[in-house]
Amino acid sequence: MSKAIQDFLNDLKDWQKNFTIQEYEFEKYNCEIAQIARMQNNNDIDGLVNFWNEKVKQEYFEIKHPLYNDVVLRAVFSSKEPLLENYVFLIDKENKYPCLWLQATHCINAIVVEKRIFVIKEPWNDDVALTWTKLMMTRFAKENIINLYHRDIAFAFTLKNTRPWHFFSEKMYVIQHLDSNNKLVESTHSFFTPKQFKSITKSKIKDFVLFYPSAIPMFIGLLKEVYAESIQDREKIVKKDSFNYDLILWLGLPGEKRAWLEQIKGTALILKNLSKYFKTIKVYVDGMTAYDGQRQDFPENKVLFHKVVKATKEAFSNLKYDLSLDELNNDVIKQHANLNNSSNEFCYAKDNKANLCMGGGHCESFIYDADELQGLEQEQSEEFKKLSLFFNLNTINSNNDTSSNALSSNSNKNSTLIVFKSLVGYDYRSKICFCDDCDMAVSEPGTATIVPMLLCNKPNVHYYGDKRMPMSQNSKRSISEKYVLIAGSSPFFHANDFHIPPQHLYNLTAEVLEELAKDDKLKGYKNGVDSKGNTLIMHRLKVPPVELIAKQYELEQKNNIDISLENVALYTELEQKINTLNTTIQDQNSNLNQQLQRGKAKDRIHNHLAYKLGSALITCSKSFFTYISMPFILSYIKAQHKLSNEKYQKAITNDPSLKLPALESYPDYQEALKEKECFTYKLGSALMYADKTWYKGGYIWFYFEAKRLKAEFINKKENL
Fold this sequence. Notes:
By secondary structure, the chain is of the alpha/beta class.
């Protein structure tokens, strides 16, 4: 290892002392790094792609020094475990000019050379690139690198990344526009590797210097290609369903960083209301995604999925439904003439298999995990035969109607089938194939929108905890901010849990479905109507205040029981009354304490500032430590006494009854007067006088007065 490289490594160990942060003035230099900095500032992504396409023609990665443009650097080492950022070490042929190149969101985020740090591009104006650079220098200084010198080592690309949003926005555009014949890619931890690229085996990674194929963050240009390649495998991945579903819904539930806190019961509420119009519903529940071509286990996501399925079963098993007719608009009531007008509640069947039914009659609900249903089908169980009878594809088609909006009095038309399919741990290719069948999606912004919105272009209802979350332009509906309440306190806007009334999400979903039916984009609708000439007009729910929803969640978590919104409102009212009563009791106790404190005039005298100061003077003179601390202690006593008096004056202004009576009215008044003649009181009074007359030599006077008072006190004590 050359001396220059060794010195560079040593300097990195204490980079705070040895390096300065400077701006890279790319206009002054004639080199590719300066050109990259310029293109990044101008968002010239095509220029950056051309840069990479020129580089892939070379076996080795070589580039001019960012400051000394006559020096050519070669990449000879890179981090082998990139997470969101990758760093590359470059050196010249003479091993004199070491350089570190940081990649994260851009082609170059920072360069480190000759005791200088050049931040080339900050992605979010929060110094994150500088933070990454500092981490890079610390990590690189600790690396145990043997072959750190100019040598022949080929370069390739790595697609390793832990965050899908960053992967697709920062890597995919360049990869899709690269000449795939010239370079290999390391793709063992890639979320999507185009099939035309040849991959490096894990055992061969050490033989390459790895670069991120980064340019600038951008989604444009990657959507069609990723979708088109993935959908080719649809027949292999998506097995044909035994049932024909009226509605296929994509549900993206946050499983990491942040959570919609009502998502478990909220999903059940949404589906229960949708089941009034859609007899057979399939729900794809999205979650964490595996790397390309893999299946991974994410236990926490799976737990959430099973909780949603369980909550939905429980919601459909309730014997009553808290939706009254006054919450439906008149068009809905007119259209569905078979509503039971004698009651303001929808009726339910028995045997814990109840469903929202129109006009009474027998109705059952069947809620399954897709794996559970598959097991019943393989066994050809009695339950599956019953399902085949109720929801047989041929039976539905014989009526020339695949929409449950056409409500029927027949028993099978009053029953509901909901099948949940977990996509937790699937890769993006598989998720795209499943999502292709969906009618619409309900999901959080950010990563959760990659499949339904950015790749499959499905109509979507967005919900979020913070409006700064990245939104898709394809969103049909987004929640109203007045129905969002942040529950966390993280300084990172994307890391807080949040509350949203599920009633609001249902209403938005209903709006989207009505539009889809009107545009003939829902199964069974043509020219905006179903086979019976009915348009899809769905009811709306009253949306409670989000604060009430948050209180409901808090109480349910605290007591581990379900609590209705009505009881939450009652509880809140009682809680306010109890708090008011507690405040009244506390005030009464405080008044009583003050009454008790009035008991003796002697105590009042002891509360005078003169007595407090005198007592402190006597106490502080007993040790060296307290003696030297005396000025601070006396100042503190004076400040506290002043504050106490101010509080007292404010209290008696608000409530004159709290005013203390005159000392003369106390039975021990005469005895209390003696306290004013004691050494302690006189000493404190003398100090107060000295403080007022300091400019006349008050403190010199106090010195002799204190000695006189002490002698007087000793004489009196001896004469007793």
